[in-house]
């Protein structure tokens, strides 16, 4: 068995911050899981302990079993049996002991232990597909579905109980011929319809399925399962373009024109008021939106629950692509009674929406829910969409180990759909772009550029990537290449009027102008980028533009302005829950030689007070901008903050707060 939790725990341990201690608890762990975890951590110094009930009543008995100095990783089953003195000793070693501190992974359920956990992970029972692999590995024989379902019923899917059951029979028992399971093909169709891809595969590969029904039925199910399993070649062999799954195949390969054509044909031939008809009409809407770049003027009416859920999914995706994350969040929010497979799609775009809105905690929760569902159901097609946002969110929240874990899962093979390859490549580029390894970042960007060159993905708002790669090219001093890349992006994106795209492109354009000595134009373009995002409910993008702006100002000696911009960026990063980036802003301010902002007696920053005094003395925004060497938009921004802090509606009321002495 290859349990996803084992892979995750192993990666979290091996990629942890050096010397940092953890107590990780497993709810429902078995001895075999600990065996597999020890094998996965073979390159670490691992110490195993099996505690017994008598240990709890012998003070210090467990401490005597712990190695000194502590092992890098200690696996303990069952930590509930630890005595109180040893528990205190163990916790001290984890959190206060000398470096490097150990990672302890243990099974425990009692509150006296669990309240000290760094994190707790629930080990779910094996699914039917996992059980099939597990039993096959144990016995060397594939079992029919009826036998597998019987084993799962009798053991609850728990590996320890499965082992006991298998060992209770003679060794050759499982190699004896078994009667086929009737209804396997019908069961495969039903599980496929419910989105349980891995279970559907178990039924479809049962010997009985090959003898049931006509070949066309089996091929239709296999094609659908191949698509959601991410097996592009096999799906293309089995799914006919004119079939009901033809539009979905075009979507997975991101071929909008084929999507529109196939969905239009499917809508014309589908039985009205069925889920197939609803799906076709919803995909027609998506295809038209992608091709035209315009939001849909008319929304098709749905007649089934799945159709309404699918329409909400697509409307949410379209809203996000068109810079309306608030509407996207409403369309994509979790509702009762939803189809699990469509919910995975929705979670992929809901997490992206939450990231854009600055709800990093919500995005982290959503991607974990989506990944857990995708893993348990075998929906490999959608995992890269979730991992793309997962890695970015973990990085923004300062969880480097979790970001590396997500990054490690972004590898897709050649036999993958564009819907897998594109977000995986975007995720790899974004993660590496924020690292110090410039050659790796450049390779990731070049890989993405090659993928994009092979397929038309240039649909504004759907797959934004150029600004990240251009930023990496600028770091490498390849200004002309960055200019060529962003110029092409500007020509495509400017007509769309999308603030997010144009602001991020303007940020790159500003940097290029500065590197070419066009200081006035460069800083003015940065101002335009900031103004394009203010009030647009996209704080994550705004914070990034402000941070880049602050760095540019500091590099060119404009320390006071850099301090102000970094202060604004730090405020946004703090508000959205990105403490690492907020600390970077504070460090940049210290590096600028100005430092953290102090506040005046009225609670204003020095620059806000400067602007307030000039305005109170009758100066126009333009005059203030000229006197302080700021842009008019920056003055407007600060003046809005002044009004809000002082609780006044406008300029006239502001004058009354400053006496003549203040204005001298």
TrEMBL record:
GO BP terms in the entry: regulation of DNA-templated transcription
Classification via InterPro entries: P-loop_NTPase (IPR027417), Sig_transdc_resp-reg_C-effctor (IPR016032), TPR-like_helical_dom_sf (IPR011990), Tscrpt_reg_LuxR_C (IPR000792), WalR-like (IPR039420), WH-like_DNA-bd_sf (IPR036388)
One Pfam family linked to the record: GerE
Transmembrane segment boundaries: none
SMART domains: HTH_LUXR
UniProt xrefs under SUPFAM superfamilies: C-terminal effector domain of the bipartite response regulators, P-loop containing nucleoside triphosphate hydrolases, TPR-like
PANTHER family (UniProt xref): TWO-COMPONENT RESPONSE REGULATOR
Protein name: Transcriptional regulator
Organism expressing this protein natively: Corynebacterium maris DSM 45190
């Amino acid at each position: 068995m290859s349990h996803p939790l084992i892979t995750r725990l192993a990666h979290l341990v091996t990629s942890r911050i050096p010397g940092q201690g953890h107590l990780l608890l497993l709810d429902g762990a078995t001895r075999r899981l600990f065996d597999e975890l020890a094998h996965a951590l073979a390159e670490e110094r691992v110490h195993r302990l099996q505690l017994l009930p008598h240990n709890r009543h012998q003070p210090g008995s467990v401490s005597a079993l712990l190695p000194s100095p502590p092992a890098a990783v200690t696996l303990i089953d069952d930590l509930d049996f630890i005595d109180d003195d040893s528990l205190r000793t163990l916790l001290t070693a984890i959190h206060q002991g000398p470096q490097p501190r150990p990672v302890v992974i243990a099974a425990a359920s009692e509150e006296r232990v669990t309240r000290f956990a760094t994190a707790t992970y629930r080990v779910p029972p094996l699914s039917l597909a996992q059980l099939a692999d597990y039993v096959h590995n144990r016995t060397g024989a594939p079992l029919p579905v009826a036998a597998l379902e019987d084993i799962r019923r009798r053991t609850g899917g728990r590996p320890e109980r499965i082992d006991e059951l298998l060992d209770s029979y003679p060794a050759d028992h499982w190699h004896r011929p078994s009667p086929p399971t009737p209804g396997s093909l019908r069961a495969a169709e039903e599980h496929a319809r419910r989105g349980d891809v891995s279970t559907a595969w178990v039924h479809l590969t049962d010997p009985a399925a090959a003898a049931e029904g006509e070949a066309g039925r089996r091929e239709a199910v296999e094609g659908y399962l191949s698509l959601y399993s991410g097996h592009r070649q096999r799906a293309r062999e089995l799914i006919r373009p004119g079939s009901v799954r033809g539009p979905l195949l075009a979507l997975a390969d991101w071929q909008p024109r084929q999507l529109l054509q196939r969905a239009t044909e499917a809508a014309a031939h589908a039985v009205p008021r069925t889920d197939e008809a609803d799906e076709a009409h919803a995909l027609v809407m998506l295809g038209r939106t992608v091709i035209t770049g315009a939001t849909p003027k008319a929304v098709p009416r749905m007649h089934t629950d799945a159709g309404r859920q699918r329409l909400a999914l697509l409307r949410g995706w379209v809203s996000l692509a068109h810079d309306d994350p608030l509407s996207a969040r409403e369309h994509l929010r979790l509702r009762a009674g939803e189809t699990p497979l469509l919910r995975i799609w929705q979670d992929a775009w809901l997490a992206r929406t939450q990231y854009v809105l600055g709800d990093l905690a919500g995005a982290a929760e959503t991607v974990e829910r989506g990944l857990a569902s995708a893993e348990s159901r075998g929906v490999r097609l959608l995992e890269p969409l979730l991992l793309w946002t997962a890695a970015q969110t973990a990085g923004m929240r300062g969880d480097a180990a979790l970001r590396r874990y997500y990054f490690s899962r972004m590898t897709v093979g050649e036999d993958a759909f564009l819907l897998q390859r594109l977000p995986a490549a975007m995720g790899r580029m974004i993660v590496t772009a924020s690292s110090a390894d410039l050659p790796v970042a450049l390779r990731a960007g070049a890989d993405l550029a090659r993928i994009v060159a092979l397929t038309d993905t240039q649909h504004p708002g759907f797959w934004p990537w150029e600004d990240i790669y251009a930023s990496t090219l600028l770091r490498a001093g390849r200004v002309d290449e960055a200019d060529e890349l962003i110029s092409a992006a500007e020509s495509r994106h400017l007509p769309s009027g999308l603030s997010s795209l144009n602001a991020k492109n303007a940020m790159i354009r500003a940097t290029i102008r500065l590197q070419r000595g066009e200081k006035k134009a460069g800083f003015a373009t940065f101002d335009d980028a900031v103004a394009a995002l203010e009030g647009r409910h996209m704080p994550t993008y705004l914070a990034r533009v402000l941070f880049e702006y602050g760095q540019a100002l500091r590099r060119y000696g404009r320390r006071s302005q850099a301090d102000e911009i970094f202060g604004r960026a730090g405020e946004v990063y703090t508000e959205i829950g990105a403490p690492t980036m907020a600390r970077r802003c504070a460090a940049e301010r210290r590096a600028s030689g100005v430092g953290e902002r102090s506040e005046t007696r009225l609670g204003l920053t020095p620059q806000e007070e400067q602007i307030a005094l000039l305005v109170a003395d009758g100066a126009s925004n333009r005059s203030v901008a000229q006197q302080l060497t700021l842009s008019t938009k920056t003055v407007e921004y600060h003046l809005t903050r002044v009004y809000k802090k002082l609780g006044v509606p406008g300029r006239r009321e502001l004058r009354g707060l400053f006496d003549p002495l203040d204005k001298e």
